[in-house]
Amino acid sequence: xxxxxxxxxxxxxxxxxILKSSEMVNKILDAxxxxxxxxxxxxxxxxxxxxxxxxxxxxQLVFREKFxxxx
Length: 71
Prior knowledge:
With 71 residues, the chain is an alpha+beta fold. The protein is 20% helix and 14% strand. A two-stranded antiparallel ribbon has the order 1-2. The chain is flat and about 60 Å long. The N and C termini lie far apart (41 Å).
């Protein structure tokens, strides 16, 4: 869903922390009791589409454990 939103030129963010307030959110949304809140996705027009973020290189975030050849 977030990729689709991005392809439309919109911004979106997954709000998982909102689960701590799920009862209040369900009340505001008037959701049926049979629904279980999993997350909320906020959508809208980005304030600055030209924003450039600095990303770490992949090798700074992940590693591959090398196993002995005897495995």
